[in-house]
Structure formats: C-alpha cells, structure tokens
Design goal:
The protein has a domain of 97 residues: Heat-shock cognate protein, ATPase (Actin, Chain A, domain 4, Alpha-Beta Complex). By secondary structure, it is of the alpha+beta class. Strands 3-4-5-6-7 form a 5-stranded mixed sheet, covered by helices on one side. A 3-stranded antiparallel sheet has the order 8-9-10. Helices cover 18% and strands 27% of the residues. The chain is built from 4 helices and 10 strands; from the N terminus they run ββββαβββααβββα.
C-alpha cells in the first residue's frame, strides 16, 4: 500500500495546539526543551485501477449502456442529411469516447457539403445523405462501431456509399488501430488480405473481384471493426469490385487471425484461452 503524506505550510501564521510556531517551546524542570508534534495527517490509500485477468489493460467496472443519437438538417437548399450513431454511457468512461463515435458521421456530412458546392447540377433536386453506425462489439475495454452511409444525388440515377469503422478504448477515449491490436512483426496484414480475397472470390467469382483493392497494403484494410466472432473488414464501393457489389463486408474469424493478437493488448481477452 502506498501512503501519501500531506504537508501544509502557511507563512507566519501556522499554529500548533493554539501556539504560534515562533513561540518558545515548553521547558521541563531539568531544563530540557520539548517539541510538541502535531497529530499525523490521515493516510490516503491509492486504489489501483481494475485490470483484466489477461494482460494489464484497464477495464471498466461494468459494460456501458448504449443509446442512439440522431442528427438531421439541411445544407442550404441543395441537400438534406439524416444520420444516427451510437452513444455509450457508464462508470469510468472517458469523455472522448462519444466524440470519437460521432466523428465519422460529422466527417461524412462535411464531405457531403463539399460535394454539393462542386456539383454543377445542384438546384435541380435536393440530394440526401443518410445512414449511420451500429455497434459490433462492446465490453468493458473497447467499443467497435461500423458505419454505412449513402448519398442519393438529386437528379442522378445512381448514388454513393461510404463505409467507416472505429475501435475506441473506453478508458481513455483513444482510437485503436491495427498496430495497437496485432504484433508488429506478425503477418496479420497478409492473413487479412488472403482471407478477404478467398471470401470475396468465393461469393462473387475470381473474375469479378479486383485484386488491387485487396493488395497487402494497410490503406486497403483501414476500415477495420471487431466483433466476438472475429475481425470485420469493410470495403468501400468500387474498392474491390464493380458498383453492383456495393460495399462488401468480410468477417475473418479469431481462429484465423487471433494468433497475431497481442494478449496484453486492448483486445487480448477476445482470444485468450
């Protein structure tokens, strides 16, 4: 146990049992001076944060609760937006967590507004941005959210689709990326690329899938979410195939990728044991 000693000093006016500190000390009959010691300050025990039995990552005392927040509005007369995103509340939760969960929809709204300004056909019909985020994992360590947002452009026959994902540390509110989860020197990226390629080619055909969007590059796998089943990969529309594929989603099971997860990291508990 650690003990914190507290010392207070007030110049010229501190007291000791009602006596000024500059007053003479009492003298015993044999002429020996004594010093009156003040009562000791109470000790303050330092309570360590709760930690997981696997590794040393800080955990919350209980799983937070989830609610949905919605933002709607218009951008001049050219566009409207209607999006939702999750909000979490609980003991020990960092204030930054909900700002991180809101950020992707705010980013989408900013991109939408910028595109409206550049759209020469604006004014014919309003365009509409809609969609939102859904929690894929929430426990006492992290929250993971997938975002799927679409735009219907006024007067256009087709629209756009944007995907995004975040993994947030509940205790400090920081975003967690692949290098926070996987061993740096492990073939985690090669494994994700191989598993995603096999999944997509199995569903859509090898002649339909575009290999460039699945090349072993971090940028191709930046939309990464987590679930109890494994790592979720979200691909933008036109990234791995023609628009008819939409924005494909691939789940790589923990049995295939878990060996590369740092057991002392933020999601080590998902693969421990």
């Amino acid at each position: 146990m650690f003990v914190v000693g507290l010392v207070f000093t007030v110049a010229g006016c501190a007291t000791d049992g009602g006596r000024g500190l500059s007053d003479p000390q009492p003298v015993l009959p044999d002429g020996t001076e004594t010093t009156v010691q003040p009562d000791p300050e109470p000790t303050v025990p330092l309570v360590p944060p709760a930690v997981s039995p696997f590794g040393s990552w800080v955990v919350l005392p209980e799983v937070p609760t989830v609610s949905t927040e919605r933002i709607t509005g218009a951008i001049a007369s050219d566009g409207t937006f209607d999006m939702d995103f999750p909000r979490v509340e609980g003991a020990g939760l960092a204030l930054e967590v909900n700002a991180q969960l809101r950020a992707p929809v705010e980013h989408a709204r900013a991109l939408f507004a910028a595109d409206l300004l550049e759209d020469e056909s604006s004014g014919l019909e309003p365009s509409h941005l809609f969609g939102g985020g859904a929690v894929s994992l929430l426990d006492t360590r992290v929250v993971s959210v997938e975002y799927d947002l679409s735009v219907e452009w006024g007067g256009a026959a087709s629209g756009d689709q944007w995907v995004d994902a975040v993994v947030v540390d509940l205790a400090d509110g920081s975003l967690l990326g692949p290098l926070d989860l996987f061993y740096d020197d492990s073939p985690w990226l090669e494994t994700l690329a191989a598993m995603a390629t096999a999944d997509l080619e199995g569903r859509f055909g090898a002649n339909v899938v575009w290999p460039d969007g699945l090349a072993v590059e971090v940028a191709n796998f930046e939309n990464l979410a987590l679930s109890e089943d494994g790592v979720i990969l979200l691909f933008d529309r036109y990234q791995v195939g023609p628009g008819v594929l939409g924005a494909p989603r691939v789940v790589v099971p923990w049995s295939e990728i878990g060996v590369f997860i740092d057991p002392n990291g933020p999601v080590g508990h998902l693969v421990a044991g």
